[in-house]
Amino acid sequence: MKPLASLLPDLFRQYAADGPWPEQVAAGLWKEIVGEHLARRTRPVKITRSKLVVLVPSSAWKRQLSSLRGEIVSRLNQVLGAGITRVEFRIDSTVEQAPRQTPPAPPKRTSTPVDLPLQGIADEELRARIQAAATACLDRGK
Predict the structure, then answer these.
(1) How many CB atoms lie within 10 A of CB 140?
(2) Which of 63, 78, 113, 141 has the fewest Cβ atoms within 10 Å of its own Cβ atom?
(3) Beta 51-56 vs 43-48: how paired, if at all?
(4) In what order do the strands lie in the sheet with 86-91?
(5) Overall CATH class of domain 4-91
(6) Could you give the angle at the alpha carbon of 46 between the alpha carbons of 43 and 56, nearest 5°?
(7) What is the model's pTM?
(8) What is the pLDDT of residues 81-97, one digit of tens each?
(9) Where are the domains of the chain?
């Protein structure tokens, strides 16, 4: 049995000129085309003739994705079987931004902290982090 995604290129070619079908197919397969990371921060919205319009959250994203334009066109045509030759990026601040990643919590101490001569470090937080890093490093070796 063929997966549904493999049938869509043929349907796309048959109905490409009719209504919103191309945009819906592109939107439905966008994650497969550009990957999960980019799909969360971009949105294909319109196909006109051989051009796909994609919304991006900022000018920085627009610049970065411009360098991937050729790869995106190639993947679009590979997955959709369509004759897309251009991708236009437009800024729309309502497109989802990447969630801010919180730094990982320091590793749990499983042994006695390493006794280091850290009294010369005035910053208490830095002193504690160096202590934790040294302890974690030695714990990994066990």
Answers:
(1) 8
(2) 141
(3) antiparallel
(4) 43-48, 51-56, 86-91
(5) alpha beta
(6) 30
(7) 0.57
(8) 767 899 999 999 888 75
(9) 4-91, 102-142
